[in-house]
Amino acid sequence: MQPEDTVAKPNYAFEKRQRELEKKRKKQEKEQRKAAPQNAPVQPPVAEPK
Question: Which pTM does this prediction carry?
Fold first, then answer.
């Protein structure tokens, strides 16, 4: 139904949503990394006897 001389428009809303989802995912991963060391006991590396 479209004339042949028209070009498909980029879907900027879709691209923006994908960027927002990526930012949200990265933010959650960062928060999990920050929270994990607080919950887990910190153990210094054990020196192996020679």
Answer: 0.52
